[in-house]
Design brief:
By secondary structure, the protein is of the alpha/beta class. The protein contains 4 helices and 6 strands.
C-alpha cells in the first residue's frame, strides 16, 4: 500500500503514515519524500506513523542506512515515531539508537495520543500533501 503524507500548518507538523506492507524500498522512499518536502518548506516537526502497517519487511541494513543518512527534518525539531507493534517498535528504537548523534530530538511511542502529548498539540488539522 505504501505511505501518505500530510501536514498540519497550524501546528507545523509533517506526518508520514505508512500503510499495509512496508518493505525496505517503501520505507526508504517515504523517508526521501519527507526529506524533500521538509527541505522545500520551513522547518517543522514530524510524525512517522506505523499504526497502519500490517507487514513490516524492513531489514536491519535499511534501518542502518537511514540512521546513517541526514535527518529528514533538521535537528532541533522534535520528531516522533508511533509504533504500536512490538517488532516495529524494536526496529524504530534501533533506528533511534543508531542515529542518536544526528537525531537527538527523535522519540518513539506506542500511540498517536502519546505523540500528540509530546508535541503539545490537542486537535491537529492535517491536510494531504501532494
Amino acid at each position: 500500500m505504501g505511505f501518505v503524507m500530510d501536514f498540519d500548518a497550524r501546528n507545523n507538523i509533517l506526518r508520514v503514515t505508512l500503510k499495509g506492507r512496508v518493505t525496505d524500498a517503501i520505507l526508504l522512499e517515504s523517508y526521501a519524500t519527507a526529506a524533500r518536502y521538509a527541505a522545500s518548506h520551513p522547518p517543522c516537526r514530524g510524525i512517522a506513523d506505523f499504526s497502519e502497517v500490517t507487514e513490516f519487511e524492513v531489514s536491519g541494513t535499511a534501518i542502518k542506512q537511514l540512521a546513517g543518512s541526514s535527518p529528514a527534518i533538521p535537528t532541533g525539531y522534535i520528531r516522533v515515531c508511533v509504533a504500536p507493534l512490538d517488532f516495529i517498535f524494536g526496529m524504530v528504537r534501533m533506528f533511534q539508537i543508531l542515529g542518536e548523534d544526528t537525531r537527538p530530538d527523535l522519540r518513539t511511542v506506542r500511540t498517536m495520543d502519546e505523540a500528540h502529548r509530546l508535541l503539545g498539540i490537542e486537535s491537529p488539522e492535517f491536510s494531504p500533501v501532494s
